[in-house]
Backbone:
């Protein structure tokens, strides 16, 4: 009750100013985030030994000012774990943890920091943080007919990882992502072209340009500058000094840029079978597409087609466009080309046309009169004085004019053969199409076929192992577009023209327009400029948040007027200036933060600072999706550490064992496991991932195939197999999973778990044989329980003993002397009836033998069971002493083929009528086959809070 | 509710405080309760109170994807019979494709219930509950195309990334049953057009996204991911879970006052119970035969009965899609197709209304029926590649269409608004999709202007800058 009261009082103080904050109006120029970076004086602190570097002086100053004191330093084993996850996203090994613990010093700590910063896995961890910012996905989202994949998105992901690994200065990191196309013309570093995936891997909104550009503006400005520029799409920003004009200035930059039809190669493909095969498959498919289109292009100009177009267009001279199109389809002609023919023949002066004048005159002759009137008509036309093209005259003069079809054929021949003549060529213009323009004119079937071929082409580029990587780049259009404001965001309502230039809030109203190409490079340089007050602040705040779990500015992608002021404004500026001074080195920034005492404090809750405003503790955090999945693979020994390349499937039952950052991200239907574990939405720039705890996560840990597989791998590892003693095996699991030894209590608990209390019932399920020599029944327990069956390994059949197993309803005897054995032990002395039904369902079996034997292995009765029908077997009135066992034994006939049997063993005490059914005992017995217990233990370790949370 | 964290403690304590001084949760729900910048792990589905007392606690949305024709179902237009085969005497509105003469409805309408509500012969079973239906004949949307209209109907925005209605409701109300997802979308055989974007969480946390269930399947493990352990019987798993709890408790003892740890421990208990509860919720064989017969044992009967079982167990928002793709899209053979589609769904929907009523659940369950738009009263003209050229179907029509609601605080046996004489355009009391959304939220106890989420510098809401509650249809 007391703590409840306390928690009511403290928030009261802090909550009220927070609520009123939104209503306060700060003049924009005075807003903390828009002011230039100021070099703060280092605060003096009472304690002088605690600060490890200058960061700590800012933190400690505030701690002291509020009457608090910093937390203790975390233990070495917590620190090594914290560093590993923070920097590479993987757990440290047991050996390394012990070494670190035994040799812990300031020096070994900083050595470890340097080691991890230079690990190739550093980029995988920090690259993924940036991919959240960049709303990375491997697909376009919803599409109609085109291929859904971005075949080369991975080249961007790999560029990001590599850039973090080599500590590409952050300002260059940004500018390459916006303008690598022009920047590499200066530095020649072609590999940076891949950086522009930042702009191009977004959702495609069914190819609507305004939405694509809006997405790019949003990801750029929220991602890099913490400015919600996209809020100014329809009207001036409601809170921040971003007028709608500024939005469309930037819109102009993006609309003056375009994606090249053929994306540039990032590297020359090596010459090998795979790349040769890729080129061959690609060019085969391309040829198929080309030759189809070429065929359709040339077809339109063939004499036979010209003839049909002429005849159809003439018949349809006075039809409505829809009717004409219908007619065209019925003649197997292209609709739009037919309409073009008709329009040509319908032109005002068509009757006097040197080419079509005669045709139109002929077409007016009623068909039945044609043979008799055509020649006269032709003479009449020639003598009428209109000019007739000589090619037509020549053609018609030399032929018998039998019907309108004959004339059409002659026209077809003339026009098709005389493409040298510009007049004839012009007359053929309705049928003149080229490779590019034919597609929209094709009938539906033709378009579908072309789309199918194009998708197949894309699929080769996406899936063929020999496909060389390409960069998803952008280039400037040959001439930039002059943007206009879309009033209320509506592209149909073009408003005033605006120049392409940078944001007023940074550059002032008197800024100069961009002059080079689209202006994208200038925009990039303005963003990454050291005098831009936002860029460095935004980045150091992101890095701080990732490392400390709580940001200095609580809205990492919104530094606008409505954001809360930083908790430590001087520290924010100090870090930002330090970043710039250190040539924008992200690794230096991370290094200085993790070397601080602030970072090294113990994790947890400080009751004196319930809202964690002062950093007197570090935050205990749940592993994110990637760290969780990667860690499970790492501790099970199954992690595939290979890097880069095409995305792999990580959610399917044949999932890849590679790190999660290489998993395929399907934007449209993101597999539920990503969502369940709070993966960043691939649809919009993510400032911070939510951290939820929901039962679906627990279900995944308890029942998911992935976790069980890895628990099994842990149990079956070679190291584990070498160990015999239970306590050693348990200790090994603790070392693998937690990088530490179990204590006595933990060990004892695990051992108890592995030794379940004997179950209080008389049935026991096993296998074995009658050992005549020893005079007993050799009874052994099964070791595995898989899909409802007790067996001796994970898989059936066992290489030496065959299909031997027992289930609730029956079983299958093994090869040779591996018999199914059911043991029943009398709870007290008495007379018992032993009976069972037994049946072999498969008629392909040669039968089995059922025996009931006593403890000396003497067979009391024997039945030959033939397949197909149900047999009744049993022994009446058998006397058993207390604890005396009796055995039901099923063995194969000549062969064990198809020897599955079903049975229902029941034992009844004659005097009392008490019954013991084997099937109801089965459930209890199968609770604890030994291997299953080990898997359960391993799985519990993987599912535990100690594994999931980071101190 | 045992699941919460330090941060949430604070927030909830704030609420306690504000409640005491008489402001209520509403004041804080606006962006402060939970937003993209909340960082500590919390249970996002803890049950929450809305702004004011709710009329409805849950929603069942029967989505007739593809667009059913209003003039053949709930909006009779005798004038079409009169003008059948002739041009409709009005300026044709632009729809997706060319249309021709008036096409009379091939279906007979008659009056039902005390209210005398007019319903066509397509829905004899639904008609039995005529006095429960609140038919809105004046719905309208923005464009005559499936993709943007589906997104508009589901997310209140036709193109951009926005959370769906069900996600907003889960965000606002949490769930009454922690052992089941709060928002479930069922569609037999595969996805509708626009796929899982229809039940997206958008920029809300992923847990508010609809859980998709393919009701073609009958086995529970195909319906809900990881709901069954293939290797351990429940009793054995219980023993494993007890071991896990002991491990977690030892871990927690050294790390006091961190409710995230407690939350996660608790989530395993919930998961364990979910295995029983979810299996139970989806197992319709536990219903009496009488009830199963009422709904019918086909896919629609099954999924509709599951919907009732889910709502009964506290699930907030259930969407039932007619089927994969866009089944109601009758560009050709409208008579044959609409007859078949209605036959597939009428029995189950009729059963749902009767069943909810007899259980007393209809009062606080809002049932919504409709598509993303309606169809034209004029016949669709042949267009190669887009129809079969039979001249006996109808084009999309967003200018005016019908949806109905039942239960959850709406008037029964009631008709709201009207289209013109021919059923083309909403003319009397038009209701835009945004208005429908505002009304749904209102019935659930929310002021649609105050149910917001702070994202990317803005307080977003389902209705953006639009939406008026349709007061006339509320009891």
Residues:
């Amino acid at each position: 009750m007391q703590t409840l009261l306390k928690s009511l009082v403290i928030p009261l103080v802090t909550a009220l100013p927070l609520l009123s904050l939104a209503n306060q109006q700060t003049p924009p120029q005075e807003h903390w985030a828009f002011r230039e970076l100021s070099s703060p004086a280092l605060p003096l602190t009472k304690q002088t030994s605690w600060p490890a570097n200058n960061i700590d002086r800012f933190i400690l100053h505030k701690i002291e000012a509020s009457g608090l004191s910093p937390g203790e330093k975390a233990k070495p084993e917590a620190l090594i774990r914290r560093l590993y996850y923070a920097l590479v996203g993987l757990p440290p090994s047991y050996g390394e943890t012990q070494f670190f613990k035994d040799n812990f010093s300031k020096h070994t700590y900083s050595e470890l920091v340097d080691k991890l910063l230079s690990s190739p896995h550093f980029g995988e961890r920090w690259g993924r943080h940036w991919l959240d910012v960049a709303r990375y996905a491997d697909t376009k989202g919803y599409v109609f007919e085109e291929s859904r994949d971005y075949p080369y998105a991975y080249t961007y992901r790999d560029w990001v990882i590599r850039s973090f690994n080599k500590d590409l200065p952050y300002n260059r990191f940004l500018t390459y992502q916006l303008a690598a196309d022009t920047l590499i013309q200066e530095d020649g570093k072609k590999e940076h072209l891949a950086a522009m995936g930042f702009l191009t891997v977004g959702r495609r909104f069914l190819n609507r340009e305004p939405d694509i550009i809006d997405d790019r503006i949003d990801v750029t400005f929220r991602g890099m500058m913490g400015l919600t520029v996209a809020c100014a799409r329809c009207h001036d920003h409601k809170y921040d000094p971003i007028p709608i004009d500024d939005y469309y200035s930037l819109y102009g930059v993006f609309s003056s840029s375009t994606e090249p039809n053929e994306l540039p190669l990032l590297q020359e493909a090596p010459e090998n079978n795979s790349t040769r095969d890729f080129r061959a498959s690609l060019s085969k498919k391309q040829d198929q597409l080309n030759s189809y289109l070429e065929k359709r292009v040339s077809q339109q100009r063939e004499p036979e087609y010209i003839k049909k177009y002429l005849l159809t267009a003439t018949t349809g001279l006075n039809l409505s466009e829809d009717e004409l199109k219908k007619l065209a389809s019925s003649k197997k002609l292209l609709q739009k080309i037919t309409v073009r023919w008709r329009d040509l023949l319908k032109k005002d002066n068509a009757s006097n046309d040197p080419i079509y004048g005669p045709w139109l005159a002929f077409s007016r002759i009623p068909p039945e009169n044609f043979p008799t009137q055509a020649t006269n008509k032709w003479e009449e036309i020639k003598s009428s004085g209109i000019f007739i093209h000589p090619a037509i005259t020549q053609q018609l003069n030399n032929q018998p004019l039998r019907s309108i079809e004959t004339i059409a054929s002659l026209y077809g021949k003339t026009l098709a053969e005389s493409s040298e003549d510009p007049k004839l060529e012009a007359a053929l213009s309705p049928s003149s199409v080229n490779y590019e323009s034919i597609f929209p004119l094709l009938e539906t079937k033709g378009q579908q076929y072309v789309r199918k071929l194009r998708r197949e082409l894309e699929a080769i580029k996406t899936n063929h192992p020999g496909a060389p990587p390409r960069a998803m780049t952008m280039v400037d259009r040959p001439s930039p577009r002059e943007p206009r404001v879309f009033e209320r965001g509506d592209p149909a309502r073009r408003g005033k023209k605006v120049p392409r230039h940078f944001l007023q809030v940074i550059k002032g109203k008197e800024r100069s327009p961009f002059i080079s190409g689209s202006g994208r490079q200038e925009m990039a340089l303005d963003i990454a400029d050291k005098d831009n007050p936002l860029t460095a602040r935004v980045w150091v705040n992101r890095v701080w948040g990732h490392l400390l779990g709580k940001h200095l500015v609580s809205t990492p992608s919104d530094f606008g007027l409505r954001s809360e002021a930083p908790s430590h404004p001087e520290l924010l500026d100090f870090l930002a200036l330090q970043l710039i001074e250190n040539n924008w080195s992200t690794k230096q920034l991370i290094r200085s933060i993790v070397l601080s005492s602030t970072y090294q404090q113990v994790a947890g809750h400080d009751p004196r600072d319930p809202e964690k405003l002062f950093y007197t503790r570090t935050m205990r955090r749940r592993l994110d999706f990637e760290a969780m999945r990667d860690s499970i693979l790492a501790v099970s020994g199954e992690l595939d550490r290979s890097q880069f390349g095409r995305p792999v499937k990580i959610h399917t039952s044949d999932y890849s064992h590679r790190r999660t950052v290489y998993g395929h991200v399907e934007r449209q239907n993101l597999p539920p496991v990503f969502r369940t574990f709070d993966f960043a939405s691939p649809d919009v720039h993510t400032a911070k991932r939510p951290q939820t705890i929901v039962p679906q996560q627990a279900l995944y840990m308890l029942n998911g195939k992935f976790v069980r597989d890895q628990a099994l791998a842990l149990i079956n590892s070679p190291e584990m197999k070498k160990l015999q003693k239970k306590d050693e095996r348990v200790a090994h699991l603790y070392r693998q999973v937690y990088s530490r030894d179990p204590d006595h209590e933990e060990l004892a608990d695990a051992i108890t778990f592995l030794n379940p209390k004997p179950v209080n019932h008389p049935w026991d399920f096993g296998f074995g044989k009658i050992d005549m020599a020893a005079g007993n029944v050799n009874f052994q327990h099964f070791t595995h329980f898989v899909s409802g069956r007790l067996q001796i390994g994970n898989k059936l059949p066992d290489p030496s003993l065959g299909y031997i197993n027992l289930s609730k309803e029956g079983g299958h005897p093994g090869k040779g002397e591996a018999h199914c054995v059911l043991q029943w032990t009398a709870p007290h002395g008495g007379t018992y009836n032993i009976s069972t039904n037994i049946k072999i369902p498969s008629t392909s079996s040669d039968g089995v033998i059922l025996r009931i034997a006593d403890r000396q292995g003497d067979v009391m009765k024997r039945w030959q069971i033939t397949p197909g029908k149900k047999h009744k077997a049993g022994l009446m009135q058998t006397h058993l002493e207390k604890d005396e066992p009796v055995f039901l034994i099923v063995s194969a006939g000549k062969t064990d083929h198809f020897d599955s049997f079903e049975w229902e063993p029941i034992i009844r005490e004659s005097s009392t009528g008490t019954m013991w059914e084997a099937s109801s005992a089965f459930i209890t017995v199968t609770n604890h086959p030994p291997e299953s217990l080990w898997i359960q233990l391993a799985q519990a370790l993987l599912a535990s809070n100690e594994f999931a949370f980071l101190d | 509710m045992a699941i919460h964290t330090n941060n949430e403690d604070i927030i909830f304590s704030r609420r306690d405080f504000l409640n005491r001084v008489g402001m209520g949760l509403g004041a804080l729900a606006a962006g402060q309760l939970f937003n993209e910048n909340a960082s500590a792990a919390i249970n996002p589905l803890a049950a929450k109170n809305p702004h004011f007392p709710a009329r409805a606690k849950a929603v069942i949305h029967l989505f007739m994807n593809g667009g059913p024709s209003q003039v053949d179902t709930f909006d009779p237009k005798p004038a079409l019979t009169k003008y059948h085969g002739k041009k409709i005497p009005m300026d044709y509105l632009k729809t997706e494709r060319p249309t021709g003469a008036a096409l009379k409805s091939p279906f007979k309408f008659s009056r039902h219930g005390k209210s005398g509500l007019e319903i066509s012969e397509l829905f004899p079973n639904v008609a039995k509950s005529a006095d429960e239906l609140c038919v809105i004949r004046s719905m309208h949307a923005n464009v005559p195309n499936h993709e943007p209209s589906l997104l508009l109907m589901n997310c209140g925005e036709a193109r951009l990334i926005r959370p769906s209605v069900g996600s907003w409701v889960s965000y606002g109300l949490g769930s009454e049953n922690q052992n089941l997802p709060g928002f479930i979308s069922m569609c037999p055989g595969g996805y509708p057009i626009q796929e899982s974007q229809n039940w997206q969480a958008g920029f809300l946390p992923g847990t508010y996204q609809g859980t998709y269930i393919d009701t073609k399947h009958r086995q529970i493990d195909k319906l809900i991911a990881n709901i069954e352990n293939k290797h351990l019987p429940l009793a054995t798993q219980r023993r494993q879970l007890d071991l896990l709890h002991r491990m977690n408790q030892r871990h927690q003892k050294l790390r006091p006052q961190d409710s995230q740890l407690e939350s996660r421990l608790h989530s395993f208990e919930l998961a364990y119970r979910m295995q029983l509860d979810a299996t139970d919720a989806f197992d319709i064989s536990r219903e009496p035969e009488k009830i199963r017969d009422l709904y019918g044992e086909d896919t629609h009967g099954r999924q509709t009965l599951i919907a009732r079982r889910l709502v009964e167990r506290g699930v907030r928002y259930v969407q039932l899609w007619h089927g994969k793709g866009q089944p109601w899209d009758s560009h050709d053979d409208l008579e044959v197709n609409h007859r078949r589609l209605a036959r597939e769904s009428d029995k189950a929907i009729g059963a749902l209304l009767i069943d909810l009523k007899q259980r007393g659940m209809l009062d606080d369950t809002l049932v919504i029926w409709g598509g993303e738009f309606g169809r034209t009263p004029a016949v669709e003209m042949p267009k190669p590649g887009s129809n079969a050229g039979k001249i006996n179907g109808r084009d999309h029509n967003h200018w005016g269409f019908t949806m109905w609601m039942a239960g959850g605080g709406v008037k029964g046996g009631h008709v709201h608004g009207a289209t013109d004489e021919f059923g083309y355009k909403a003319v009397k009391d038009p209701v835009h999709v945004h208005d429908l959304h505002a009304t749904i939220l209102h019935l659930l106890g929310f002021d649609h202007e105050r149910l917001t989420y702070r994202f990317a510098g803005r307080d977003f809401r389902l209705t953006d800058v639009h939406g008026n509650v349709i007061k006339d249809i509320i009891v």
